[in-house]
Design goal:
The complex is a heterodimer of chains A (about 250) and B (about 240). Chain A is mostly helical. Chain A is about 80% helix and about 0% strand. Chain A has one domain: MetI-like (MetI-like fold), CATH 1.10.3720. Chain A has helices at about 5-25, 35-45, 50-80, 85-100, 105-115, 115-140, 145-155, 160-195, 200-210, 215-240. Chain B is globular. Classes of the chains: A mainly alpha (about 250), B alpha/beta (about 240).
């Protein structure tokens, strides 16, 4: 039995258990609606178009947040690696920021950015910045000095060493950081959509809770999990295909 | 004028407030086209000597002069390949200044053929054995057509058969190209097998300079070979 088959078998088992518990009346059907009810809710939300609209809005928020994170974290990690004196000023402040859960900043974000898209994207940015920044910075810092010395023996200039040696050697860590950052974006999404949102999967779940539609709450949670899984699996396959050396990296997560 | 000349070169390292003399007043001339091996115990200063000749480090005292702007190629104990680049791209790194793409391709093809890696052009370092990776390192050093090849125990971590094969390849490269080689090794037999002159180092000084006047296609069971080996063992110990 291959790994994929075993994982599928376990998921089918979970669904069967869920179905049995809900249908047998062993658990309160309000707390645990049957899979059939959740499926019906999915059909209903698809027919009225709300499900795909909310999914698309959430995906776009994640993409915007991720692009902004990558655009800020990658250059900053390079700058701090190349100018360690500059980083020494920021190090303590970054450690302080890193220890704050992004959700704790929600009131401030609403105050600064209002209740529109900006505050949600800012929260996604806060949640995903440090994985990308730290993995990139650590990847650069851990490049073996002996490899850079090899560049000296080939008479490479400072910038040639950065371009031809430093970046390619740090690439596995950079890619790992980006992957983790993307996963964090997705996780931060629900928090971001709790900020007075009127759309998105997070909003759909909260709105359903208020309307006592627990089946839609389940549907939303399953959608988030499935999309996270599909993205993770696709990115992993893509990364291993485009960068075959990632499959043998210790930094691979 | 020799290709490289060292005059009274010394190098001292500070390790935990203690001074360690790595090189002590070395004077040495390296003639163009020679194959010199440097042997000695660990910590004798062999690698430091190579690093100074290679301009990776500067001497504390003394001078080092080159006949002209000498193009060097270096091979270390470990291959030092870029793990995210294929064999071909690792070789290209040594030719990144070459503007003529056709010439670059020709040099890479020639190097892949010379090192027997034609079928591993698109392989990544993690897909190579230790011997193959060291061949890539040898190719990277040679594809830029160096006049001076500096080798720091390049075959030290390889198995006996791979080591023998690479020694043969190196001998044929030396004989087919106008190249000067400085080869550092712990292995006395390897030094006699490959080189024309052997420098013995001890505590940062060159204590002996032995000529190896043996014909090529050397056999380690020959009487002269055994005599030189015996003499070198006595000098090292």
């Amino acid at each position: 039995m291959n790994s994929f088959f075993r994982q599928t078998v376990f998921i089918i088992f979970l669904f069967a258990l869920w179905f049995f518990l809900a249908e047998s009346g062993m658990v309160n059907s309000y707390l645990v609606p049957s899979p059939a009810r959740v499926f019906e809710a999915g059909v209903e939300m698809t027919v009225n178009g709300k499900l795909q609209t909310n999914i698309m809005i959430s995906i776009m928020r994640v993409i915007y947040g991720f692009i902004i994170t990558a655009s800020a974290a990658l250059p900053l990690a390079f700058i701090f690696y190349l100018f360690p004196l500059l980083y020494s000023y920021f190090r303590g402040f970054f450690a302080f920021l890193k220890s704050i859960p992004p959700l704790a900043a929600v009131p401030l974000l609403i105050l600064w950015f209002g209740i529109d898209e900006a505050s949600k994207i800012a929260l996604i940015f806060l949640a995903s910045f440090f994985p990308v920044f730290l993995d990139t910075f650590n990847g650069l810092s851990q490049v073996d000095k002996k490899i850079l010395e090899m560049g000296d023996t080939l008479d490479l200039t400072y910038f040639e060493k950065i371009y031809y040696i430093l970046i390619p050697e740090a690439l596995p860590s950079i890619i790992t950081g980006l992957r983790l950052g993307f996963a964090y974006c997705w996780r931060a999404l629900i928090g971001a959509e709790m900020i007075a949102a009127s759309s998105g999967l997070g909003y759909m779940i909260l709105d359903a809770e208020e309307m006592a539609r627990i089946d839609i709450v389940y549907l939303g949670i399953i959608c988030i999990g499935v999309f996270g899984l599909v993205i993770e699996f696709t990115v992993l396959r893509l990364v291993n295909r485009v960068f075959p050396w990632m499959s043998c990296e210790g930094t691979h997560k | 004028m020799p290709l490289v000349k060292l005059d009274n070169v010394s190098k001292i390292y500070s390790i935990e407030n203690a001074s360690v003399t790595a090189l002590d007043n070395i004077t040495l001339s390296i003639e163009s086209g020679s194959f010199i091996s440097v042997i000695g115990k660990s910590g004798a200063g062999k690698t430091t000597l190579l690093r100074i000749i290679n301009r990776i480090e500067k001497p504390d005292t003394g001078t080092i002069s080159y006949e002209r702007s000498v193009k060097t190629g270096t091979i270390f104990q470990e291959p030092r390949l870029i793990r995210t680049k294929t064999v071909e791209k690792n070789l290209k790194l040594a030719l990144c200044r070459e503007k003529d793409n056709d010439e670059k391709k020709r040099l890479i093809d020639e190097t892949l053929e010379m090192t027997g890696l034609e079928h591993f052009r698109k392989a990544y370092p993690f897909q190579l054995s230790g011997g193959m990776a060291q061949r890539v390192a040898l190719g990277r050093a040679l594809c830029r057509k160096p006049e001076l090849l500096l080798m720091d125990e390049p075959f030290g971590s390889l198995d006996a058969i791979t080591r023998k094969n690479l020694q043969q390849e190196l001998t044929s490269i030396y004989r087919s190209r106008a190249i000067t080689i400085i080869f550092i090794t712990h292995d006395v037999t390897e030094a006699i097998m490959l080189s024309e002159r052997i420098l013995v180092m001890n505590k940062g000084r060159i204590t002996d300079n032995i000529a190896v006047d043996l014909p090529r296609e050397r056999n380690e069971n020959d009487r002269d070979f055994i005599n030189i080996r015996k003499k070198l063992y006595e000098l090292i110990i």
